[in-house]
Structures are given as C-alpha cells and as structure tokens.
Amino acid sequence: MFPNSLERNMDKVTYRMNLSGRQNQKSVLVDVTLTETVLMWARVSQTKNSEVTSICTDDLLAVQPLQTGSDVVDLITYRMFYVEHFPQRVMRMNSVVLSMGHSEAVSFLTKINLIINGSSKPRRLLVFINPISGRKKGTTVYRKQLSPLFRICGIDVDVVVTKRRRHISSVLEKYDLSSIDGIVTVGGDGLYSECMDALLRKQHQNSEIELDTATPTMSDIPVGIIPAGTGNVLVEFLHGNKDIETAVLHIIKGKTSRSNVAGLYENRKLTVFAGLVLGFGLCGEMVRDCEKMRWLGPTRHSAPLKAFFQRRTIDLEVTSRQGATTSVIEDTIGPNSRLSGPMYSLDMWVPTLVNGPRKMKPTFWDSSLSLHAVHKCSFVDHLRHLLKVNSRQTGCFDYDFVKTIQGSGFKVCLQRSHGSTRKHYINHDGEHTLLTSQSFDVRLHEGAIKLFGTMN
C-alpha cells in the first residue's frame, strides 16, 4: 500500500504513512522523519510549503496498537502519545493515529521504542497520597489525573495512602528502594518535606557516618511532587505553574535536577530536614495555629491572624557561618554576618530568591542560604511585607526593617527572658516542630535531593 522508507541514512529515516489527530478526523498522507532528537511530519502536497510539525524525542511517551476495523488488510494502525507544550510552561498529553504498511511499521516502531525505552523515563514508582491535603482531593487527583497517564505510559505503581503524620517514614524504613525508579507525593509542600526527610534518613540506615554531624549522602531516588495541597509553592518554583498534568508529565518524562536541603540541628542532633523554607518566630507560630485548624481545609489559613495581631518579638542573636566543612559547629564566621536584637521572625529559604521582572525567581542549587530577619516595624508595613512574600512579588524583602545575611549555615541563639515560659516553633515547609533548646543551627546541604523536573 505504501512504499518502504523513502530516505535512509545513519542519522535520519523518513516514512510515508497516514496520520490523523482527533477521533473521527479524516487522515492525511504525510512524510514522517525521525532522528535521534526530533520527529517531524509534513503533509504530502504538490506545493513545497507544507506545514511541518516537530516533536522533540524527549517528549515521546508511548505507542499503542489500535484495532480500527479497516478494510485494508496490510494497514497497521498505532496511536502515538507525546507531550505538547503551551504558554506559561504548561504541558498536555496529546496523541496522533498513524497508519502504515507492515514493513514500515516494523522499522518505525523499532526505532520509536528504542528511543522511549532507552530514555530515563521511570518504569516503577512508589506513590504517597495525603487524602486530607488541600481540599481533601488527593485520592481523586490520583485516580483521575495520574493513574490514566501512568497506565498509558506503562508505568507500574505502588500506592500508599498516608494515615498519620510520619507514615512515610515507617514505610520507607523497610522499603526496598532498589525496586523503584522514583517516589511521587500527591499532596502539598509538607508531604514532600516529610518524604524528603525520611528518604535522606533512609540513606544513612546502614552508614557508619553519624547523620547528626555529617553532610547527608546525596539521594539518587528522584522525587516528583503533584500539587494537591494548599500552597504548592515548591512545584510552582520548579515548573513555573501549579498545573497537575504538567507535574505528572515532568515525572513521566524522567528528567531530573538536584536541589539543596537545609538541616535543623539542636544540641548537635538533627531535628528535621527542609526543602523549601525554615521559619522561626512569627512564622512558626502562624503555622502552628494553622495546624490546629487543619479540619477547616484551605480556610484554616485565616487562623494565624491571632498570632499576627499579637506580633511578639524575640530577642535573638544570629550568626552566619561560611565554609563547607562537615561539622555543624566548626564553620568560620564571615564578615557582616551577625544580627542581634528584638525580631518578629526569621525566614531561611532553601532556594535562593532573587528579584525578577514581576516575581521572585528561585535558584535551587546555590552555594549559600539566605536568612531574612524582620525587625520592629509598623503593623501596616509588616502586613504589606507578608502579603508580598506570600505571593512572591519582586521586592518583597526590600524593606528597611528586613535584614538579609547569607551563609552556608546559621546559628540562632535565644536571649533568655527571666520567667518566660513562651514556647517556640519552627515552620519547616508548612509543618511545625516545637524547639526544645535555647539555640539551634541551620546548615545547607548542597544538591542532597533529586527532583523530577527542570528548574524554573
């Protein structure tokens, strides 16, 4: 019915076949050209200016046979799935139907499958779902938006619906990580943080190095984040949007990037890892109040108003540490690296945030952490600052009462207040932990975690 390949050399093969897009759309005769990096097709036409459609081979996802009921016995039909790109870095799965003769099909499918199977795309994933994240739609998101795409792409999954805090830790403690190609969290920033913390601790289960005093071993198990929570800040930083299907396709494509992690230490003992932000003072108290109202869903974020209206300061001394030694306490102290006095809060962002045209732009693998200390200010100025930080507006840290220092880590000491019984909390990626000592260290661990996706 169709001639064999029209053109062959070591780098390029061209086939002639029928192609159709949407269901019941009339097929057209096209020339399909395949190289190692791109697949292109153009309609066979008498004119020389036929429109060309190009797909990067990294965006090819799967090819499946179809039963068409065609009267043409020698015609073999397949549906090819691929990623289509849209503005705002949004991605969608699309497909076309290809019909070709037997000899063309054998050659074409052999090459396509070599490209798809030879890539870094995952074949088996461990999926954690938080059923109460955000609007409590985690399981629905997985069933309707993840599972169908994973099934099309031939990805096997092991699904765990979390039932309690630290459930992920108990699962990973006994899980054989060599049996999977990655982990997926369906929830918010907090679920990712719990997974990342448990994964780094898992890396040290059989290690002779003490995790409390050493830089954690880099994890080679990539983590993918599906934005089914309330904030979903990390996904927005990663992909430039909070679109669920885009996040799923980043996981399926299999491209990964390294990201920094911050460790919080008390009395030389590791308390928790964070992948997005560590917040102390007002930030910790606001997250604590939110957690008390988790049953309210997203509306619980109005709960911190009480903590904000109180706006209690804490007398602190903050020291920035420079260098890349393995010890938590032996870094050298650099110039212009001390802050002291009454402060409302400390924000330590793991991705470094710099001013962009309209939004703050994150850098995931910087060589230092940035600490933003909020000193005494008016109620109105403080509120304006917090609203800008919440929406990551450019210039959100450009206030006289916000002081910024950088370093490979920080030592924070609370100045004792006689008779004070005030409790202090740390916000780590939207979760909170009660501090048990009057001082703590924060340390940067460069590139400790691997994420599915490319950095924004």
UniProtKB/TrEMBL annotation:
Keywords: Kinase, Transferase
Membrane-spanning parts: none
Domain DAGKc, first and last residues per copy: 120-267
GO cellular component, as recorded: membrane
Classification via Pfam families: DAGK_cat
A biological process term (GO) from this entry: ceramide metabolic process
Family matches, as InterPro entries: ATP-NAD_kinase_N, Diacylglycerol_kinase_cat_dom, Lipid_Phosphate_FormReg, NAD/diacylglycerol_kinase_sf
Gene Ontology MF term list: ceramide kinase activity
Keyword Kinase in record: yes
Name the record gives this protein: Ceramide kinase
Originating species: Mizuhopecten yessoensis (Japanese scallop)
